[in-house]
Specification:
By secondary structure, the protein is of the alpha/beta class. The protein is built from 17 helices and eleven strands. The longest helix has 23 residues.
């Protein structure tokens, strides 16, 4: 269970990360490492901060609250030489730097990989972009929606008689953030364990999302066929789908093994379907999925959601309810595992705000939330003091608009 504990440490305590990113992917990467103890210094534009702060619900930047936690904010104008000098000093104290400028911009600013490694040879540099630091699309805008459209994901998502469907969340960014966190730790291990030098992690949003599509390329190579959009059905197993219950609820069902299919058929009083030639094997069931769904859907639709779930649970059939966030916030699956916790928040009417806990779950060195998401520049004095700046020097930087 994740705790709010300002005194907590973690397995990554002592690792300093400079986060120069904006919006979701970079923030998802750094919050993952911050949850496990890394000191994440968020470097933001003075007065404006991360664009994620502008995504608001009832006036509160909930995305920032979720992905800005466990970070310290330093507002720094990197267009000014004085701001660049501060960043150079910080680079010497850090193990990791994460940025998501358009490829080439860091070089123009004087902070390309060669420049950074001259300051700190052991630095792990994570470069987040839509399409990668090389290749024909490197200079194109790379928002997640474009990646989701061009990766093959949207083409296979939705129903055959309707347009492709983009995900209702920042899927490409979040997948890239998790993939990037893993890659960052791999690079850090090379430095720490093998006495290696720092290296560049070229993290393109396109590539992690493309990779999780699994064997699509192999399937296409073998068949020459495009995977159809199948709604909630599957092109490789049946039955699998979402079915409406008699009281307007929904249940999700997956019987992807022969044994589970036979158990399901018996549970819904349709045992003769087991020997029906249309449904004998998984391939038969996929080929006749419309008829199969009619049989299953008719039985489920004649009963309430609660009755369906009670029957299936008693017989250990793999069926579960379709839950929304209103269901989940009070559901034992969430509450007993501590997946949501309230952290202090000065903008909320209640003085606290619900956020997701740290994942994955570790027994010896669990993640923790040590601090809520900061205001822009909230830790300017603290961070600059650590670098050796006195109050007069800090005041001068502020006066000149560097902070």
């Amino acid at each position: 269970m994740t705790k709010f504990d300002p005194t907590a440490t973690g397995a990554l305590a002592g690792v300093r990360i400079l986060d120069l990113t904006r919006v979701v992917a970079g923030n998802a990467l750094t919050v993952t490492l911050g949850d496990f103890g890394a000191d994440v210094i968020k470097i933001e534009r003075p007065g404006r901060g991360d664009d994620l702060r502008n995504w608001r619900v009832k006036g509160i930047s909930t995305f920032w609250k979720a992905y800005g936690r466990n970070k310290r904010s330093l507002s720094l104008d990197l267009r000014q030489e004085a701001g660049k000098r501060v960043l150079r000093q910080l680079v010497g104290t850090a193990q990791i730097l994460v940025e998501n400028f358009r490829p080439g911009i860091m070089e123009e600013m004087g902070f390309g990989p060669d420049d950074l490694h001259a300051l700190n040879p052991a630095l792990v540099i994570v470069r987040v972009s839509g399409w990668g630091q090389t290749g024909p699309y490197k200079s194109r805008p790379g928002f997640g929606s474009l990646v989701e459209a061009m990766s093959g994901f949207a083409a296979m998502n939705g129903y055959a008689d309707r347009p492709p469907v983009l995900p209702p969340l920042a899927l490409a960014d979040m997948v890239a953030g998790l993939s990037g966190a893993m890659a960052t730790l791999v690079a850090l291990r090379e430095v720490e364990v093998n006495n290696g030098k720092g290296q560049v992690v070229d993290l393109a949003l396109f590539e992690p999302l493309f990779s999780i599509l699994g064997p699509l390329a192999a399937n296409y190579q073998l068949t020459g066929e495009m995977p159809p959009r199948m709604g909630n059905s599957s092109s490789i197993t049946a039955p699998r789908g979402v079915y409406e219950t008699g009281d307007g609820g929904f249940v999700a069902l997956s019987a992807s093994t022969q044994g589970m299919w036979e158990r399901l058929a018996r549970a819904i009083d349709l045992e003769p379907l087991i020997t029906d030639p249309r449904f004998l094997t998984n391939a038969d069931r996929v080929a006749n999925v419309v008829a199969l769904d009619q049989e299953i859907g008719g039985w489920i639709g004649a009963r309430s959601q609660a009755d369906n779930l009670a029957r299936f649970e008693a017989l250990e059939v793999t069926v579960g309810p379709v839950l929304d966030i209103g269901d989940l916030v009070a559901h034992p699956l969430v509450t007993e595992r501590g997946l949501i916790l309230d952290i202090p928040d000065g903008e909320s009417d209640t003085g606290h705000l619900a956020v997701h806990g740290a994942v994955p779950r570790l027994t010896a060195t669990p993640g923790a939330i040590r601090r809520p998401a900061p205001a822009v520049g909230e830790h300017n004095d603290e961070i600059l003091d650590e670098l050796g700046f006195d109050q007069a020097a800090i005041a001068k930087l502020a006066e000149n608009g560097v902070l």
